[in-house]
Amino acid sequence: MLKKMYKKAAIEDSGLVDPRTSLPIRVSTTARLKYRQYFDERYTHRDVLYDLNNKELNEIIAQDFAVSANNALHMFLSKSSNIATKKREWIEIRQVTGRRAFNYFFSIIRSDGIDILTTSTKYVRPKKPRLFVPKF
């Protein structure tokens, strides 16, 4: 029986750098939980990702994310951005192609790193897509 865990998302470093932004990639607890749940539902070997520690799983997720460097679909400013102080944090949605666990990554680009917030197998494109090329 799978126990449910409720926890605020903690961001941990993956040790890898994003090829597009040259910023360190960090992974949230939410993304790790989704990866573990995805593989738990698909494989009979329950210990596929449960035996991995967070550091090892962060590397796997960051590698999947790095592959999507050239496939940004949509970007917008986060609510925490402040135009007056020029503090801008971009929310970015990327698509990864190929045989990966998840097709879409939702991340936030901060001045000190890029944080993978969550992943998804589906994404509904907005009617008016926005894609900016911010200066990193």
What does this molecule look like?
The chain is of the alpha+beta class and 136 residues long. The chain has one domain (18-120). It has helices at 29-42, 47-50, 54-67, and strands spanning 11-17, 24-28, 72-77, 90-95, 104-110, 113-120. It has a 6-stranded mixed sheet with strand order 1-2-6-5-4-3, with helices on one face. The chain is globular. 19% of the residues are buried.
For the structure shown, list the relevant keywords.
29% strand, 3 helices, single chain, alpha+beta, 136 residues, 6-stranded mixed beta sheet
Give the number of helices. Answer: 3
Q: Span from first to last CA?
A: 45 Å
How would you sum up the global shape?
Answer: globular
Q: Describe the main β-sheet briefly.
A: 6 strands, mixed
**Number of structural units classed as domains:** 1
Major sheet: order of its strands? 1-2-6-5-4-3
Q: Estimate the strand proportion.
A: 25-35%
Q: Which segments are poorly predicted (pLDDT under 50) over 5 or more consecutive residues? A: none
